[in-house]
Amino acid sequence: MTPSRNDRNKRAFDLIISVPLFLLTLPIQPAAATAIRIRLGSPVLFRQTRPGLDGELFEIVKFRTMAPLDPAQGFVDDAFRMTPLGLWLRATSIDKLPRLWNIIRGDMSLVGPRPLLVEYLDLYSPEEARRHEVRPGVTGLAQVSGRNSLRWDEKFRLDIQYVNHHTLRET
User: Fold this and answer.
1) pLDDT tens, 82-95?
2) Does the CA dihedral 59-65-71-76 come out positive or negative?
3) What span, in angstroms and rounded, lies between the C-alpha atoms of 44 and 65?
């Protein structure tokens, strides 16, 4: 499929913003990686396969914020696995800085539907699956419209609204 002019413009916008931002945050990223390595050990990065544009799988990357699963220590769910460092990294969005690389590579966009887990692919209705007609985003319409306070059907409705109406002006 040939990308539309709007898609090419949006991709150029993503690069104009994300490349300088990536370079500006380079001093912060090794400091965050060092803190994670000291406090949480290896690996420093959290990597997970997610569906992107046209449902193609890619590896999403961010700084790790949680202790590993460890039932012996009670680390069985996210609430128990979250660390003070992880809370701080998330509150400052430093944990998401490696996602700039996902944008530069073309796997993601600054704005678009958030990439969900691969396990959900078979559960989408045909309308919900339309979220894969655009690159997934670091943030999206559902995140700025209520994030976790929204029901899943509302999030999908907003994702499809974005797919239907995204332009560089609306991004």
Assistant:
1) 889 999 999 999 99
2) negative
3) 9
Structure token pair of residue 59: 């590896």
The domain segmentation of the chain, as residue ranges, is 5-165
* Alpha-carbon separation of residue 46 from 33, 35, 39, 153 (angstroms): 11, 15, 15, 28
Please report which residue ranges of 25-151 form alpha helices under DSSP H: 28-40, 78-81, 84-92, 99-105, 141-144
Count of Cβ atoms closer than 10 Å to residue 61 Cβ: 19
Q: In DSSP terms, which residues pair with 139 in a beta bridge?
A: 111
- For the record, the structure tokens of 72 come out as 């012996």
pLDDT digits (tens, 9 = 90+) for 119-145: 999 999 999 999 999 999 999 888 888
Residue type (1 letter), 169: R
Q: Sort strands 57-63 and 109-111 into parallel, antiparallel or unpaired.
A: unpaired
Listed residue (125, 122, 165, 159) closest to 143, CA to CA: 159
Q: Supply the pTM of this predicted model.
A: 0.85
**Cβ proximity of 113 and 142 under 8 Å:** yes
CA 61-22-97 angle, 5° bins = 35
